[in-house]
Amino acid sequence: MTFSEEICLPYLRAAQNPDGGWGFRSGSQSRVEPTAWALLALDQVFPANAASEAIARGVRFLSDSQLPAGSWPAAAGQGQGAWVTSLACWAFLSANENRDALKRGLSWLVAERPGDSGAWWRLIRRLTAHKKVSMQNDAYWGWSWTSGTASWVEPTAYALLALSASPLDLLPPQAGSRQKLAEGMLFDRMCPGGGWNCGNPMVYGVPGEPQVSTTVWSLLALREHAERSEIQESLAWLEKNWGSIQSLASLALTQVALNAFDRGNSAFSTTLERLYEPDAISWNVPVAAWAALAASGKKFWLQPERAEFKN
């Protein structure tokens, strides 16, 4: 049996809550983020008969958790939509489920604007330009973690992934312009020499340090621009830092990105087994899902081509 079949699948199935969702760890409260990751892994990696019931229950949890405006909250009981809307849409896309919920979620994403997109924010930026400590083009903006706050790299990458994978007939007319603007933001926020951090490539003239997770999601969101030098530099940064990775999450995410560009590391499986500790606090539902997706060697789950929605 493979690592995914022996470790990841049993863990994900056992961690599912009675309400159909997943928490970050077994027994914790169901939330949209870990539920979306679990659904992506179960749907894309394992045979249909091994996870069909778990997927159906997870999809129902996401459907029941959607807010009236079409978004999803970061945690149960919250009435405001958040960045996890992108992940919920991605999970629906993967499972080919609930076209109406998906369309409403995508419409909310396209309409959602971060605080730094507003005229007042831009005026303040201009008035304080002489005090600016970070080097970035404020004409670009993407998506925020929380509604009304500033754009950040990771939620922008998630939104781009959801929009680029969606059938055109489910997208509002403004989707294309939002995507181009957000792609411009990601390229603008890249650290010198490759890679991304949370959003500041230069601070006080000092180059920012790239981070694995933000680099991975940015690369995946910009995968259609693989020929650009920024993408090649960032892939080279990931490959250069492979040997120093000691985090199971970082290892899995790095392999996910490299697989997407046909550059997966052949040492992944042995390194994954070496770093795996079942009782470690770092082993949780998202990490198990990423490990399964990475170990599969697939890049189809990224849905690089728009296909007609089956339902």
The CATH class turns out to be Mainly Alpha
Number of helices: 13
Report, as a whole number of angstroms, the end-to-end distance. Answer: 33 Å
Structural class: mainly alpha
Spell out the key features of this protein.
311 residues; mainly alpha; Glycosyltransferase; two-stranded antiparallel sheet; 13 helices; 2 strands; globular
Structural notes for this entry:
By secondary structure, this protein is mainly alpha-helical. It has one domain (3-302): Alpha/alpha barrel (Glycosyltransferase). It is 52% helix and 1% strand. The chain contains 13 helices and two strands. Strands 1-2 form a two-stranded antiparallel ribbon. A hairpin with a 2-residue loop joins β1 and β2. α4 runs parallel beside α7 and α7 packs parallel to α9 (212-221). It is globular. The protein starts with a helix and ends in a 15-residue tail after the last helix. The model has no long low-confidence stretch (mean pLDDT 88).
Short description:
This protein is an all-alpha fold. It has one domain (3-302): Glycosyltransferase (Alpha/alpha barrel), CATH 1.50.10.
How are the SSEs placed, and which strands pair?
Elements: H1 3-15, H2 32-45, H3 48-65, H4 84-95, H5 99-111, H6 119-127, H7 153-165, H8 175-188, E1 202-203, E2 206-207, H9 212-221, H10 229-240, H11 248-260, H12 268-275, H13 285-296
Antiparallel strand pairs: 1-2
Helix pairs in contact: 1-13, 2-3, 2-4, 2-13, 4-5, 4-7, 7-8, 7-9, 9-10, 9-11, 11-12, 11-13
